[in-house]
Amino acid sequence: MAGTKIEISGPKSLFSNEFLCNSTSLLNSRKTRTVEVRKPMAATAALTAVQIVAKLIELDSVKVIPETPVQFTVSGQVTVEYDAMEQMKELMFNWWDSSKTTIDAQRGVFLQLVSSDIDPRTGKAKVSKEAILDWSRDLPINANKFVTHEVQFLVDGNFGVPGAILVTNKNSKELYLKSITLEGFLHFDCQSWVQPEKLHPEKRIFFTNKAYLPNETPMGLRELREKELRELRGNGEGVRVLSDRIYDYDVYNDLGNPDKGLEFARPVLGGQRRPYPRRCRTGRPSTKSDPKSESPVNDTTPMYVPRDEAFCEEKKRSVDAGSWKGMMNNLFPFFKHSTESDSVNSFADINNLYKESRNHSNFPVESTADAFKFDPPNIVSRDASCCLRDDEFGRFTLAGMNPISIERLKVFPPVSKLDPSLYGSTQSALREEHLISHLDGMSVHKVREKATTLTVLFDFASWPTLIAI
User: Tens digits of per-residue pLDDT, 183-214?
Assistant: First the structure.
């Protein structure tokens, strides 16, 4: 009796995998294994099929031919953000880096899929082979700052559902990774900066947008979750650099500079003695005169903000423009002497600072007039006379302009609490005839009894300004 080959279907898990079945690019094939009966054995009617197989195994008559693992290609789309101002320069760097990957495979962006399942051989999560992000295929030649690049992953048939992705940036500059999508339905919302490997050797970990409770987290992702949490918390040591993304906190012990003198020393805000919200820990060295105080910010140790919390380029330009316009307020005393009048005649003079048709004849250099344009406040854009009405001023105050300065009118006419030797009489010049037209037919006495009349108190710091006005 000649040897007989028998084909046995592959494992059921290959076809019950939801991720593989939903994929549009995976191969639709069955994995089989072949067994060959090498030693013939006469079957008698007294032996059942199960007994025959058991006897064959006992006599080592069955040879299992090694099977070739089935692998699949998984397509992904990686969305990267580019700065419009630096787009062409970044393009040249990235294209150069990607071209070198074909030579020494030492540059580029490398990605690996991590399965939610555990590999029984290693006891750890299954990891795919590295896929290289090819910059040269999708060149960002348009003005859109978000560009999508294609990437291909090679995974085994029993890989399972991906739950995380590892990213290694071997380029020379940081990369803003917006999102990664696999096969159109598995999404990774990254929204984070990936630093070069030379600055941060650890691989960045991104998880899918599927949320899990701690006790429901898949076994393949638990170790990565704990590792990511440790990296975000930090170890409380070292000096923070701008490329870090560590969310560690400390008390406010850098408000002063005691090394310059005792008058520059400031107390520590935070802790049991002076409770106060915390700030991001920076790890700057202590001052020489006070070990509990941290050295202030300077050019070599700037203020630390986690990289993902820092302003984007558009926000930076907006803030810088607003700061520059704010500096123009220091030039107002100079312009005051160049104008014909030393006083503001009406509120329209203030509005003229925001209008495009205002007269710039008083400015010393006509060509720089556009530098003094201010963006009008939203409330002024809607209603230019809003600040002239009492009801709008009251709304501003009640809405939180300075609610601590509001109190109920108890005595009429109001009496000031300021020092009469410095500010004159404490009796207000306000009379009932000044208010009667605004009280809807009621007297001041009735309004005061209803406790619906409020007064705004101005403190000593603002009083010199009010006198000047």
Answer: 878 999 999 999 999 999 999 999 999 989 98
Cα dihedral 51, 53, 58, 63 in deg (nearest 10): 170
Q: What are the respective helix, strand and coil percentages of the chain, to the nearest 5?
A: 30, 20, 45
What does the angle CA 288 – CA 291 – CA 297 come to, to the nearest 5 degrees?
70
What's the CA gap between 155 and 130, in Å, rounded?
Answer: 10
Q: Cα 395 to the chain's mean position, in Å?
A: 34
C-alpha 221/C-alpha 218 separation (Å) is 6
User: Could you tell me if residue 142 is left (phi over 0), alpha (psi between -120 and 50 degrees) or otherwise beta?
Assistant: beta
Chain-centre distance for alpha carbon 152 = 28
18 has a pLDDT exceeding 60: no
For residue 433, what is the enclosing H or E element? helix 432-435
Rounded CA-CA distance 458/405 in Å is 7
pTM, 2 dp: 0.60
Walk me through the domains of the chain, giving residue ranges and CATH numbers: 4-64 (no CATH), 71-233 (2.60.60.20), 328-382 (no CATH), 389-468 (no CATH)
Strand partners, 181: 77, 187
